[in-house]
Each structure stands twice: as C-alpha cells, then as structure tokens.
C-alpha cells in the first residue's frame, strides 16, 4: 500500500470520527441560531436544506442539538456495562475453580434469556420514564453478553501456554495480565465494543417501537431516527441525517480501533509468512 | 469428561430455568396493573373488573399462582391464557414454529457468511477486500433495522415486485410451503446478525495469525492449510461462538422489528402482546421454551469451546 | 384496554410507529393496475391474542368491532351523527312514561336457516346481564343495567316488549351501544352463527377472520364473495395495501396517509371528527377543585400550537364541548381560545401562586407524549409547572381514573348522552374528572324522562353549558381517521369509528 492511499485512509477515518463528534459537542451552540417556532412537519425548512422533522423542527438544528445526549448517554452506558461485564468475565476466565466459574457464569446464562425489552419497559414504567433509569436498564441488559464474551475471549489467553511460559519465566502478575493478556484481548474487545455501542443506541429505538414512554420529543439522534421513521418517504433527511451520523460515529470508532491496535505490518499474514 | 460436563450442566440448567422463571414472573409483577385491568374496557365497571379477577384466579397470592403454574408445567400443562381462555400451548405453538423456522434458516445462512467474510477479511487485514468487508459489516450494523427492512420492502417488493411485501393474510402453512415469503425477513435478519459476527471472526483471525505460536509453526514448516484448520480457525472462532450463543434474548427482542414490518406471527410479537396483556401464563410458557433452548445452546457452545481450545484439567 | 371508546389502546409498535413502510420517495408511486375481484382483504390494527369475535366481548379494539359487525347485527346501530338507526328492530314505541318499549323485529334468518325471533333478543339481553363467562366482561352490562328482564316479554315471534326500571326515552340509543349485537338464543355455539351479511369460515386471533357471503341477508346479499379481516402493525398495513396484498388499510397515521396519497391505484380518506382529544382535570382535589383554576387552564393552553406541532397539523382545534357534528352538540357556546392574560387574572383571583401538578400521560395515541411535553412547556411560560409522568399504555385508562391531577385521553365518537352518563354522573364508572354535581345528575335523569327529542336537547344543552363554564374536561382537538384503499372498489365505508357505516364492507362493489 502506498503512503498516499494510507494518508487518504487516515483522513477518512479522521473525518468519520471528527464530524459526528464535532456536531455532537459543538452543535448545541450553533443550533440556537435556528428559528424557534415550529414549521410545517415533514416539509421544507427556511433554515436548512434538510427540511423539517415530525415536530416541525429544522432537521439540521435538531441534529445539532441531539448529538450530545446520545454520545454522552450511550458512551457512559456502554463504558459502565463493559466495566461490570468484563470484571465478571475476567474473574470467571482466570479462576482455577470450576465452581467459581459456574457461580459467575450460570446466572449470566439466565440473564441472557431475559427479554431486554421487558427490563427496559419495567424501568421506564417504574420511574415515570426517567432517562437515567432507562439508561441503567439498557446498561444492565448489556452486562450479560459482555461478561460471556470477555470470559470466552480471555480464557484461551490467560490459560494459554504463553501465560504459563511467562509465569515459569517469573514474570510478575501485573506484567502477565496488564501487558500480555490485555494486549491480546484488545482486538476482540475493540471489535465487540462497536457491537455493544450500536446495541445500546438502538435498544432505545426499539423501545420507542413498543411505545415505552420516554421523552420522544428529544432531538437525541437515536430517538429522532425512531420517531421520524413515519416520514421516511416524505422527508428522508429527518431519518437519514441522524442515522448517517450514527453510522459515521460507529464506523469511525471501529476503524480507529483497528488503526490503533497495530499497523498493517504486524498483522499481515502474507508478510509474516514471507518473513519466515 | 464430556459426559461429566453434560451431567453437571443439565443439573445446573434445571436450576437456571427455575431461576429464570421466578425472575420473569417477579419482573412481570412490577408492571403496573394486572390482566383484569387490561381486559376491562371503557364500558365495563369496577365490579366487573373484580369479577374478572376472580374468574382468572388473580385474587389469589402471586406466589401461590406461580407455584401452581410450575406444578402444572412440570406435567406438560402450561396453563390457560388470561387474555384468551385458550391453552397456552395452543397460543404459543404457531409463533414458536414460525420463529424457529426463521431462526434455523438464519443460522444456516449465517455460519458460512460469517466464517467466509471473517476469514477472508482477517487473513489480509488492510487489503481492499478487508476494507470492503469491514465497512459493509459495520455500516449494516449501524443502520437501524427498520430502515433496512423498509428500504428492502420498498425496492424489492413494492417497486420491482420481486417478492411478497408482508405476511398479511397468509397462513403459517402457506409461508412454510412458499419460501418466497421468507426471503425479505431472512435478508434483514442475516444482515443484522452476521455483521457483528463477521467482525468478531475477523478480529479473532487477525489475532491468531499474529500470535507467536503461529509464526513459530510457520517457521517450522507446518503447512498453511493445516495451521488454518487446526489452530487458527478454532481459536479465532471462540469469541464469535459466544455471540452466537445469545439466542435467548436476540430471539425475542432482536427480531421484533422484522416481525412488525413483515407481519410475521412470531415469538417476539406474541411475547410483547402477552406482556401488554399481563398474561403471565403465556409469558412464562414462552420464556420456559426459549430459556430451555438458549441454555442448551449455550451449554453446547461452551462444550464446543472446551473441545476447540483444550486446556489443562481443572481441579 | 380499548377501544372503540377511548380510541387506540396500544399498537404494539407504538403509536408513532406509523407508516414508514413505504420508502416512496414521494411521487414515484409504484402504480399497479388493480382489478377488483370478489375476494376482499382489509387490514386493521391487531390486538394479538386478545382479539375476539364474540359480539358481547368484542369492544376492546376496532378490529373486533369490524369483524363482529359482519357476522352479527344489532337491534339498532348508530349513524355518523350518533343517532340510533333501526337494524334488526324496525320500529320502537315507548309507552307514556318511557318504562316499556315495544319493538317490531325484522324478518331475518340466522346463517343456519332458522328464523330470528324475540327469543333471540331476550336471550341476548339475559346473557349480557348475566354472569361473566370468561376473562372478558360483557361490555354492555352497565349501559343496559336499567333493563328489567323479568318484566320484558316476547309478545309474538317478531314483537318484543322491553321494560326498564326507570323512564328511558333514550333506549334505542342504549340498544345501539357497543356489545349489544344479537346472538342466537343468547348463546354462542361452537361455530359462530349470526344474522350478519357474512358467514363465518375461520378465525385465528391475532391473525385473520375469513368469511363468505351470506345470500339471505335481510339487507341484501353482499357483492363480495369472500371477506378477510386481518391484523397487522402499521408498517405492514401500509405495505400490504400498496402491494395489493390488501384492498383496505385502516387506522393510518397522518404521515402514512400523505405518503399513500401519491400512489396510483390507491385512494385515501381522512374522516373528520373521529378522535376527540381531552385533558381531564380531577375536580375533587387541589389544585383543580377550584373553579377558577380550571377556567384558567382552559385559557392558558395554546390549542393551535398543540394541533400544529403535536398532531403534525392533522386535526382541528376543539372548544371544550363534546361531540362536534353529533346529535345534541351545543354549537352556540363561545369557544375557549388562547388568552393567557385572562387566564393569569383568574389564577390571581383564585389566590393561587406557584401552581404545580402532575400530568399523567402515556403513548396511547398518536402525538400524546408530544402534546403532554408541549403543554408542560406552554404552561411553564406562565409560571405554571406541569410535571409529565409517563404511565403504562396497557393500563392507562384504568390508571387515569385514580392517578395524577391532570390526565389526558382520546374518546371515540359516542352519543352525547352516553358521554354524560358514562363519564360525568356522580355514579359514572369512567369519571376521569371526578365530576360530582347534583344539579348535573338531576338534569340527566330529567332528560331520560323527557319524551320529545327537542325537550331532551334543551336539557342536554344546559348540561353542556355547565361543563363548558366550569367542568374538568378540556376538549382541545378532534382528529381525523385515516384509511387507504384500492381504487378498484366502490362504496367503501365512510362513517366515523363506532358508527354502523364504519369499517363495513357488505356494500362494497367493483
């Protein structure tokens, strides 16, 4: 690969990340320039070429405002779920006692069968539609799959021959786990993070599908995508713009993960083989 | 070894099912109102609501109702639906068949796609093919289901008239006889489920290929196909297998959109409907079946995981 | 659950979930040349396992109503102005004090060939007033509670006398109410047998009811040979009617209707005055036990903006009088309009400061949560704090009877007297505003004992005035009922929901 195409690749990854993040973080300051009074729903707007959404807001203005809640909520939810899930998963993977593994993982199996929408529904109804309660419920539904995933990914690392070799060489605990194991786990975990992030984002959209009460007037991107879908044909931008930003964000994060976790050199099967 | 694992898992599995049922029942009690509230309409009176409660046996303590249901369930009788008065088995059989057929077909398509895509991409990371596969899979993963479903319905069914748009007015038997009905829902489900799997397989492959033991083995002249089949493959698949194991919830919550857009009479709709009706016998019956399937599948996957990555014996 | 009355219990996929189904980049309609055959499929919002075709239970959802009206007939039904219309009864004559009615019955036959008689009428009434048979209560039990069965009798096969415990000059209207269709001898057999224009063929709850033409129907045999009434979610309804899998789709969102409007081969209809939207202030507790606070609320909310934004412009502002376009509507009362200055003056007069209350809402109808949020914002501009609490859509109308200081809701078209009796008497079961007013109760009884329609209209008018001045209901908008259908057919139904000519396909022709 020439340096030229690699450079272009970096720009693309950068743009995919920077655009949605910039819109999310700086958007609210720009959004207040938009006219305040609602216009006709799902039709053209006086402020931007993207038209209006179902509430007669300018689509661009709504998108500028709705990124921050999404990025913050989804980000925090997934981070918290990953923290809890990976502690459980890692503990189960490293233990030498089968009963500890069972104690940790068999409840996880049960949790996996729990309909996530029921959990979110109960949280919403018990809290009068509080956003925090719904986010916590979404996070809870993510813990079980994460724990199971981390355990499986970690098990062949921590119990594999390399770790044994390191131990025999007298490498310290910290060295073994923090450097070796964490390094080996980084790639599958990074791939998985993207999966969970989209899952977290769209649990809310599905929740809206079944009529769970939360603030459907929020300009949050995921809420907009779900709530405006009625007008997909009349005002495609009202769905497409927030959806595109979500896609860009997730795609950017994934590509970034790949880029950070190792340059092409280390990973090239063919090259490794040739070197041999 | 395998027999012991199986016996142990069977015992734990039974316990898990009980815990699951208790959990679901308790959660369903947290929803406001009961079946009698839902069944009462704008025309009926509070006295009628009380009568309904008595007819349905809702006036007895929840714990007693649950124990009674479990007792019957042990003999194969899943009780009677509150909303409908029909036996639960009758209510849930149709949806289970339809969802089962969809899930089976999805898995059949899923495995080759996820494996093929993941390996092709993972063996040449950074190549043009890899980029294409990665980008498509991430994009498919981040496009909302309903946008995908609706776009497919619009172009394939409404504009080009290649396929039926929905299951509206079609019997279950007809759907199973005429596979054209299944095409669109299947495409959405496969796209949905395979995208994350492709990426997990790819990540696993890249990781294994770069692993020192593989490099070493190559130096020693182990043929590449043998490396792929015996070592890289099994190790790389482990994380992806875990994702396959999420049968339980994804069978319920994951296909809701598909069922709604195509009017598929499946499990997801039936369960949500039962939750809406506070119809606990149906909720419990469905969760029992789904839970059993999921726990068996998860155990099989764990077993496969152990076989694929043999490790030292545990205490 | 609901509702012919309170419209729209829940669409599984929520209410905003309307019709994305057509990604029609507007205008590029995928026109099909449709030809009319004698087999017709109509799609309605389904209700899953709780769907029923028992006419005494079938009130919960519109799909139940549409299905049963093809299999069974009532003695009376209501037309789109909510006036009773004779069906299986041909005439009804009250005695002098209105406690005994003589009904002549039509010469009709059941699907099994036997004759329809007065025994069937009394049998059905006995069933409705008798013991509940299953999970669902009989819907007409409370509206027909005034009927005295022991004093009612069959005079001759096609003449019955129905006695009531108190004067009831509105009896035909009561006999037209929901859940009163006549079943043979008051019993349901294994296979449904009715007098309706279609015969039963098969039924799967949550899926479909299939029917075939009944040649001997008293109102003439339908042109259609086969009729299927199928359940589906909003997306699927829209795709089905577009692709020709269905010939008629009921209950579309305004946006879905706009989308289908551009498609060739499909026509749409928006039937006005079909949904009546309200806020209900509970008059038995602070802050709404104060008349001036209630009056202030009627002026502080901006209905124009609510309709424009929360209803996406699909609706008409309403004026706190129930039943525009119906019999007994009071069209001469000054509409309440947005007047914050007067509203604030009333609040000051009432000595109320820092007004705050709970507004219970749920996504039970299109635009509800949006409307709740918007009202809360409108009121906040005037220093009034309405905290929106979101409840469960499944049990909302039950919860709304007891919870919250203000609630909201949607009513279907109903006769004005029925609205009064079911929601506003001190004994009413569905008293969303906790309205108890002895004068109001007395006026209602007076109307029931008034022989002439004009006389009753005057009394009802007085009742409207009371509510308009100081009642707990704010009727803020009416919404249209949207349907789409294939242009290949004629004579499609065009009544408002609950009316006899709504969702009725026996007159459909090519």
UniProtKB/TrEMBL annotation, chain A:
<protein>
    <submittedName>
        <fullName>ABC transporter permease</fullName>
    </submittedName>
</protein>
<dbReference type="GO" id="GO:0055085">
    <property type="term" value="P:transmembrane transport"/>
</dbReference>
<feature type="domain" description="ABC transmembrane type-1">
    <location>
        <begin position="67"/>
        <end position="257"/>
    </location>
</feature>
<dbReference type="Pfam" id="PF00528">
    <property type="entry name" value="BPD_transp_1"/>
</dbReference>
<comment type="similarity">
    <text>Belongs to the binding-protein-dependent transport system permease family.</text>
</comment>
<keyword id="KW-1003">Cell membrane</keyword>
<feature type="transmembrane region" description="Helical">
    <location>
        <begin position="193"/>
        <end position="214"/>
    </location>
</feature>
<keyword id="KW-0472">Membrane</keyword>
<keyword id="KW-0812">Transmembrane</keyword>
<keyword id="KW-0813">Transport</keyword>
<dbReference type="InterPro" id="IPR050366">
    <property type="entry name" value="BP-dependent_transpt_permease"/>
</dbReference>
<keyword id="KW-1133">Transmembrane helix</keyword>
<dbReference type="GO" id="GO:0005886">
    <property type="term" value="C:plasma membrane"/>
</dbReference>
<feature type="transmembrane region" description="Helical">
    <location>
        <begin position="70"/>
        <end position="91"/>
    </location>
</feature>
<dbReference type="InterPro" id="IPR000515">
    <property type="entry name" value="MetI-like"/>
</dbReference>
TrEMBL record, chain B:
<keyword id="KW-0472">Membrane</keyword>
<dbReference type="InterPro" id="IPR000515">
    <property type="entry name" value="MetI-like"/>
</dbReference>
<feature type="transmembrane region" description="Helical">
    <location>
        <begin position="283"/>
        <end position="304"/>
    </location>
</feature>
<protein>
    <submittedName>
        <fullName>Peptide ABC transporter permease</fullName>
    </submittedName>
</protein>
<dbReference type="InterPro" id="IPR035906">
    <property type="entry name" value="MetI-like_sf"/>
</dbReference>
<feature type="transmembrane region" description="Helical">
    <location>
        <begin position="12"/>
        <end position="31"/>
    </location>
</feature>
<feature type="transmembrane region" description="Helical">
    <location>
        <begin position="96"/>
        <end position="123"/>
    </location>
</feature>
<feature type="transmembrane region" description="Helical">
    <location>
        <begin position="143"/>
        <end position="162"/>
    </location>
</feature>
<dbReference type="Pfam" id="PF00528">
    <property type="entry name" value="BPD_transp_1"/>
</dbReference>
<keyword id="KW-1003">Cell membrane</keyword>
<feature type="transmembrane region" description="Helical">
    <location>
        <begin position="251"/>
        <end position="271"/>
    </location>
</feature>
<keyword id="KW-0812">Transmembrane</keyword>
<dbReference type="GO" id="GO:0055085">
    <property type="term" value="P:transmembrane transport"/>
</dbReference>
<keyword id="KW-1133">Transmembrane helix</keyword>
<dbReference type="GO" id="GO:0005886">
    <property type="term" value="C:plasma membrane"/>
</dbReference>
From TrEMBL, chain C:
<dbReference type="Pfam" id="PF00496">
    <property type="entry name" value="SBP_bac_5"/>
</dbReference>
<dbReference type="InterPro" id="IPR006311">
    <property type="entry name" value="TAT_signal"/>
</dbReference>
<protein>
    <submittedName>
        <fullName>ABC transporter substrate-binding protein</fullName>
    </submittedName>
</protein>
<dbReference type="InterPro" id="IPR039424">
    <property type="entry name" value="SBP_5"/>
</dbReference>
<feature type="domain" description="Solute-binding protein family 5">
    <location>
        <begin position="84"/>
        <end position="416"/>
    </location>
</feature>
<dbReference type="GO" id="GO:0015833">
    <property type="term" value="P:peptide transport"/>
</dbReference>
<dbReference type="InterPro" id="IPR000914">
    <property type="entry name" value="SBP_5_dom"/>
</dbReference>
<dbReference type="GO" id="GO:1904680">
    <property type="term" value="F:peptide transmembrane transporter activity"/>
</dbReference>
């Amino acid at each position: 690969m020439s340096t030229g195409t690699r450079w272009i690749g970096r720009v693309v990854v950068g743009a995919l990340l920077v655009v949605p993040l910039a819109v999310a973080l700086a958007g609210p300051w720009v959004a207040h320039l938009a006219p305040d009074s609602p216009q006709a729903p799902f039709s053209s707007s006086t402020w931007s070429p993207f038209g209006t959404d179902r509430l007669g807001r300018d689509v661009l203005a709504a998108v500028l405002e709705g990124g921050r809640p999404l990025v913050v909520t989804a980000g925090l939810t997934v981070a918290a779920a990953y923290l809890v899930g990976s502690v459980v998963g890692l503990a189960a993977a490293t233990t030498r006692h089968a009963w500890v593994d069972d104690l940790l993982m068999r409840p996880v199996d049960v949790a996996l069968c729990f309909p996530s929408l029921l959990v979110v529904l109960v949280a919403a109804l018990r809290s009068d539609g509080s956003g925090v309660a719904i986010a916590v419920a979404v996070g809870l539904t993510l813990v079980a799959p994460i724990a199971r995933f981390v355990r499986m990914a970690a098990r062949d690392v921590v119990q594999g021959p390399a770790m044994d070799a390191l131990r025999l060489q007298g490498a310290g605990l910290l060295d073994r786990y923090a450097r070796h194991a964490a390094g080996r786990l980084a790639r599958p975990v990074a791939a998985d993070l993207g999966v969970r992030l989209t899952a977290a984002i769209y649990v809310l959209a599905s929740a809206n599908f079944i009529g769970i009460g939360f603030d459907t007037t929020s300009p949050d991107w995921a809420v907009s995508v779900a709530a405006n879908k009625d007008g997909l044909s009349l005002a495609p931008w009202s769905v497409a713009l927030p959806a595109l930003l979500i896609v860009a964000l997730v795609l950017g994060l994934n590509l970034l993960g790949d880029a950070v976790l190792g340059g092409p050199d280390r990973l090239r099967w063919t090259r490794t083989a040739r070197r041999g | 070894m395998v027999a012991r694992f199986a016996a142990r898992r069977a015992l734990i599995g039974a316990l898990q099912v009980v815990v699951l049922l208790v959990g679901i029942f308790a959660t369903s009690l947290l929803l406001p109102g009961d079946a009698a509230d839902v069944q009462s309409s704008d025309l009926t009176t509070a006295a009628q609501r009380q009568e309904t409660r008595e007819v349905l046996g809702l006036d007895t303590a929840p714990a007693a109702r649950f124990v009674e249901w479990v007792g019957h369930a042990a003999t194969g009788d899943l009780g009677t639906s509150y909303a409908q008065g029909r036996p639960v088995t009758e209510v849930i059989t149709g949806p289970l068949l339809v969802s089962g057929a969809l899930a089976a077909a999805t898995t059949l398509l899923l495995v080759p796609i996820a494996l093929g895509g993941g390996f092709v991409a993972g063996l040449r990371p950074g190549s043009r093919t890899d980029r294409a596969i990665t980008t498509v899979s991430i994009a498919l993963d981040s496009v909302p289901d309903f946008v995908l479903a609706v776009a497919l319905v619009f172009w394939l069914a409404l504009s080009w008239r290649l396929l039926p748009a929905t299951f509206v007015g079609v019997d279950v038997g007809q759907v199973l006889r005429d596979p054209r009905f299944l095409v669109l829902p299947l495409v959405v489900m496969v796209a949905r489920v395979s995208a994350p799997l492709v990426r997990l397989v790819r990540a696993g492959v890249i990781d294994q290929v770069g692993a020192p033991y593989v490099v070493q083995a190559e130096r020693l002249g182990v043929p590449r196909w043998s490396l792929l089949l015996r070592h890289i493959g099994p190790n790389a698949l482990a994380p992806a297998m875990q994702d396959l194991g999420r049968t339980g919830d994804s069978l319920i919550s994951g296909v809701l959109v598909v069922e709604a857009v195509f009017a598929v009479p499946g499990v997801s709709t039936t369960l949500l409907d039962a939750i809406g009706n506070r119809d606990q016998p149906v909720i419990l019956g469905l969760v029992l079946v789904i839970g059993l399937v999921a726990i068996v599948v998860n155990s099989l996957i764990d077993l496969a995981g152990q076989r694929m990555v043999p490790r030292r014996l545990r205490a | 659950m609901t509702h012919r009355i309170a419209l729209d219990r829940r669409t599984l996929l929520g209410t905003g979930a309307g019709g994305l189904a057509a990604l029609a980049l507007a205008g590029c309609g995928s026109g099909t040349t449709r030809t009319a055959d004698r087999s017709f499929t109509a799609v309605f919002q389904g209700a899953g396992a709780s769907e029923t075709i028992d006419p005494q239970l079938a009130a919960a959802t519109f799909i139940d109503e549409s299905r049963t009206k093809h299999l069974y007939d009532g003695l009376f039904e209501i037309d789109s102005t909510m006036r009773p219309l004779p069906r299986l009864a041909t005439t009804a004559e009250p005695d002098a004090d209105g406690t005994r009615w003589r009904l002549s019955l039509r010469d009709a036959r059941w699907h099994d060939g036997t004759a329809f008689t007065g025994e069937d009428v009394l049998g059905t009434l006995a069933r409705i007033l008798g013991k509940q048979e299953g999970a669902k209560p009989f819907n007409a039990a409370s509206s027909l509670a005034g009927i005295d069965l022991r004093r009612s009798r069959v005079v001759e096969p096609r003449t019955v006398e129905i006695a009531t415990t108190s004067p009831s000059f509105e009896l035909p209207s009561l006999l037209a109410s929901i859940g009163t269709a006549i079943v043979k001898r008051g019993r349901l057999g294994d296979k449904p047998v009715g007098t309706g224009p279609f015969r039963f063929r098969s039924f799967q709850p949550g899926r479909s009811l299939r029917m075939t033409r009944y040649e001997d129907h008293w109102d003439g045999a339908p042109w259609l040979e086969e009729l299927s009434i199928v359940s589906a979610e909003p997306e699927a309804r829209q795709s089905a009617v577009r692709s020709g899998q269905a010939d008629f789709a009921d209950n579309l969102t305004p946006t879905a209707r706009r989308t289908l409007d551009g498609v060739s081969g499909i026509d749409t209809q928006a039937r006005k005055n079909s949904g009546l939207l309200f806020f209900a202030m509970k008059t038995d507790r602070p802050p709404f036990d104060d008349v001036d606070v209630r009056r202030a609320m009627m002026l502080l909310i901006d209905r124009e903006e609510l309709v424009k934004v929360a209803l996406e412009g699909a609706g008409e502002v309403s004026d706190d009088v129930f039943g525009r376009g119906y019999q007994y509507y009071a069209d001469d009362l000054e509409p309440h309009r947005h007047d914050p200055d007067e509203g604030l003056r009333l609040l000051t007069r009432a000595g109320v400061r820092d007004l705050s209350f709970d507004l219970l809402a749920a996504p039970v109808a299109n635009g509800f949560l949006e409307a709740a949020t918007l009202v809360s914002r409108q009121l906040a501009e005037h220093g009034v704090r309405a905290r929106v609490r979101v409840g469960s859509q499944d049990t909302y109308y039950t919860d709304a009877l007891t919870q919250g200081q203000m609630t909201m809701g949607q009513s279907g078209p109903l006769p004005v007297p029925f609205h009064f009796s079911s929601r506003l008497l001190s004994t009413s079961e569905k008293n969303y505003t906790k309205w108890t007013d002895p004068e109001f109760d007395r006026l209602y009884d007076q109307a029931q004992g008034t022989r002439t329609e004009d006389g009753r209209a005057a009394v009802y008018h007085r009742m409207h005035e009371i509510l308009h001045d100081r009642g707990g209901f704010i009727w803020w908008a009416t919404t249209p009922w949207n349907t789409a259908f294939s242009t290949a057919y004629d004579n499609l139904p065009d009544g408002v929901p609950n009316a006899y000519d709504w969702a009725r396909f026996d007159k459909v022709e090519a």
